[in-house]
Structures are given as structure tokens and as C-alpha cells.
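Hello,

I think I submitted the tetrahydrodeoxyuridine job twice by accident. Can you confirm which output corresponds to this input? Input:
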Amino acid sequence: MTLFEQALRVREHAYAPYSSFKVGAALRSVSGKVYFGCNVENSAYPEGTCAEAGAIASMIAEGENEISEICIVADSPNPISPCGGCRQKLAEFCQPSVPVHLANLDGILESHTMAELLPNSFSSDHLPNE
Ligand code: THU
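Support: Only one job matched these inputs. Its output is below.
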């Protein structure tokens, strides 16, 4: 299965009764292993989590922390665009050149590098040394 097909598959499991907007994410780590996430909404709306956050948490829980590629899928005419918070979350674990594929149900519509999606991102470089 391609990364797109895997993101499409997990999207079906999204819990999105409030927005009805299901999102799936599949990321490949540098080890080659693939991790998945889907959005999980909550009746207390701000407690919902995005698909990208789920995939990142799954990767971290397995002891990895470097993404080589990610595909995000939603049912929209235009390719889904990761929200600002997810761009920051992804930047924590992506080199600037990492491709981020944006897809709808038919396939990947656009691919951007992490740096294109979040130029000049805040990073640990901005934190004072301890
Ligand atoms: N959503 C994601 O899962 N990822 C994004 O990058 C954008 C938005 C989810 C959050 C919410 O459950 C639904 O899409 C509508 O905003």
C-alpha cells in the first residue's frame, strides 16, 4: 500500500461527529516504518485532536522522532492544508526538505516541503540554553 492508500484507510476511522470532516494521516519515519493518525473530536470542541497529532504520537510512542514523508487526506475539492498548530507539530520532527503530501479521496493533489508550509518556524534554536 502506498502512503496515500494508508492515510485513506485510516481516515475511515476518524471520529468526527461534530464537523463531519474526516482526516487521515500516514507518515513514514526515517526507519521506513509507517505510523497513522486520524482526527478525534470531542463534545468539548477544543479537546479534539488532529490526524497529524495522532500520527506523531504513534511514532513517538514507538521510540522514533524523525519523519521522512507524510501524507494527509481529507474529502475536499481542494487539497487539505494542515492547520497552523499541526505545521508547528510536524516541524518539530521534520527536516525542512521533508515532503508533505496533501490529498483528497482521489489521490495526492499537491506536495510541499516542510519549509514551504512553515517558513522561519519557531524551534528549539530560539530557546535560551539551560
Ligand atoms: N483537522 C485535522 O485533523 N488536521 C488538519 O490539519 C486540519 C483539521 C481536523 C480537526 C477537526 O476534527 C476537523 O478536521 C475540522 O476542522
